[in-house]
Design a protein that fits this description.
Number of strands: 20
Radius of gyration: 21 Å
Largest sheet: 16 strands, antiparallel, barrel
Strand content: over 45%
Structural class: mainly beta
Shape: globular
Low-confidence stretches: 1-19
Order of helices and strands: HHEEEEEEEHHEEEEEEEEEEEEE
Helix content: under 10%
Number of helices: 4
Length: 363
């Protein structure tokens, strides 16, 4: 609580400084009434039955933040961004241990490229953004965010169960602390490289992460990919890669992506995961958009039965204004292998269905 109060006081105490640094306060408030069958309120498998709930971030993750820049002349700029996730249904921070769990960095932009230092999204997550069939909607339930982007690799009866890189959490490596990221644009190509310091005394490799990424954008076509290697405290590695494409024809847009990763989780033990995804969106009117997507996830782990799931989504969004959108979302999940697991000795339902009516406002 002290950190929230301190930051609020700093914002209120020096309006002159904020004006000089061009600070912009922004956010997304997204909440919806949701009904699930075969899933609980956290979208985990259950033995069956319906569950009504109020959920935050079903379209876009609820968040708040401040960003700014200062022109230094000759094409140079100083930049910063601070951003934290919100649970709008409960009025809580997405991560209780981090005020700015999503982004906290300062950067320098020049004609030769940009450098960012601090807590940031990984290159894998950057690469997913333009080619994910859902457009990174419903991040907490989107397999490209969870499995390809490594934000929640725990499902079924097995998980990595340990921390790779400096995310601060086991089975969640979508954002990392202590990261230096470089980005440069050459014509239609954006090249990125990143390194995250493990900060383990006497071992420069443990907990460190490095990688590279390329994105090509030209007219209606986008192609995006990245590779990264993460290390845990024992210097075991997690290798991840993704590549995808998006193409727009008139009011239609087609997207597809492949993501794979492999982790050494112990002596002679590994986990391999793969995600195939594809989707189509159609702009029926300037204020009416339909988006559909399909994901297939497969996991192989030493000592466990192969598992995974298939998941399909459909979103119908109606813009009420440039800042407000009402939407209907539906999803269907089919668990495979023993991924559905058990609850209190009872086998969970292998089928999960969700339906949401939500409202999103950007400020």
């Amino acid at each position: 609580m002290r950190q929230y109060c301190t930051f609020a006081l700093l914002l209120a105490a020096n309006g002159t400084c904020l004006a000089q640094s061009s600070a912009v306060f922004y956010g997304i408030a997204d909440v919806g009434a949701r009904y699930t069958n075969g899933l609980n309120a956290a979208n985990a498998p259950t033995p069956g039955g319906g569950t009504p709930s109020l959920s935050s971030g079903v379209n876009n993750t609820s968040r708040w933040g401040v960003h700014g820049q200062e022109d230094l002349g000759a094409g140079w700029q100083a930049l910063y961004r601070l951003e934290g996730g919100l649970n709008l249904d409960a009025g809580t921070a997405a991560k209780s241990d981090k005020l700015f769990d999503r982004q906290a960095w300062v950067g320098l932009k020049s004609p030769l490229g940009s450098v960012y230092l601090g807590r940031q999204a990984t290159l894998i997550s950057d690469a997913i953004a333009p080619v994910d069939p859902l457009g990174v909607r419903y991040a907490s339930f989107n397999p490209n965010v969870n499995i390809t982007g490594l934000s929640n690799t725990a499902f079924g009866r097995h998980a990595f169960g340990q921390q790779y890189g400096t995310s601060g959490y086991a089975d969640n490596f979508y954002r990392l602390d202590n990261m230096v990221k470089y980005s440069t644009t050459v014509g239609p190509v954006v090249a990125r490289a990143a390194y995250s310091f493990g900060e383990v005394a006497g071992n420069t490799s443990a907990m460190s992460t490095w990688g590279g990424a390329l994105t090509y954008r030209q007219d209606a076509l986008a192609v995006s990919g990245a590779v990264m290697r993460f290390h845990n405290r024992d210097n075991r590695s997690l290798d991840a890669a993704t590549v995808g494409a998006a193409y727009k024809v008139d009011a239609w847009q087609f997207k597809a992506n492949v993501g794979v990763n492999r982790a050494d989780v112990g002596v002679g033990k590994s986990v391999r995961q793969g995600v195939l995804s594809a989707g189509v969106s159609r702009q029926f009117a300037p204020d009416l958009l339909l988006t559909t997507a399909y994901y297939k996830v497969r996991r192989t782990a030493t000592g466990y039965v192969d598992d995974g799931f298939q998941r399909a989504f459909a979103y119908l969004e109606k813009s009420l204004s440039p800042r407000s959108t009402v939407y209907i979302e539906s999803d269907y999940t089919l668990w495979q292998g023993d991924a559905a697991g058990v609850t209190a000795g009872r086998a969970n339902d292998r089928h999960g269905l969700g339906l949401t009516l939500g409202l999103m406002h950007k400020f």
